[in-house]
Amino acid sequence: MRVLIVEDELRMAENIARSLREGASYAVDIATDGEEGLYMAQSEPYDAVLLDLMLPRLDGLKLLKQLRHSKQHTPVLVLTAREEKESVVALLNAGADDYLTKPFDLGELLARTKALIRRGKGQASPVLTIGNLEINTSNRAVRRAGKNIPLTAMEYRVLEYLAHRPGAIVSKAELLEHLYDYNWEKFSNVIEVYISGLRRKLNDDSERQLIHTLRGQGYMLQ
Ligand code: CA
Fold first, then answer.
1. What is the set of domains in the chain, with CATH numbers?
2. How much distance in Å is there from the Cα of 60 to the middle of ligand 1?
3. Is the overall model pTM greater than 0.85, yes or no?
């Protein structure tokens, strides 16, 4: 999953980014003004946007309105200051999905972001189940047939993304767009490395593969 943080206080933005990377294995981009934020939100396929309200160049409410006007349905969580409380109704009416009042607890922000992404993908439970494979997105524990499977952070990122779309063909390009942040060099062959690592680790005694390769099209978890 890939999240955009639009926040002009860089230290705060970096703290949030670290928490999302370490606590959820998300790829994270930061925009430090409203115009840059709007541009990035419209040009990259984010799974969620965390949006500060008081921003230089374009404020959060205007950004949100323009984003929704351009038919972008990415879930948006707004970060408001206490004195901006009266604007919550306006924010929700403009298409915000959730909000948190500053100062907030990073653990709560992380949990809300996970819930928002989950809901955005049509998933209510934090545990994703595909056959005898179980992925607990709250603690990133993966089990197959009751057996714990330790994964690297990137293997988990790939698996969680595929697991949110079981039975669907996910192209390598889509994986690269959702698993890497803006500054990362994107090489499609690394995806193949993660997929083969996942295949090996997820293999159970039945030898039934969960991850299928559709030549020239992409991957499917089923
Ligand atoms: Ca601000």
1. 2-120 (3.40.50.2300), 127-221 (1.10.10.10)
2. 9
3. yes
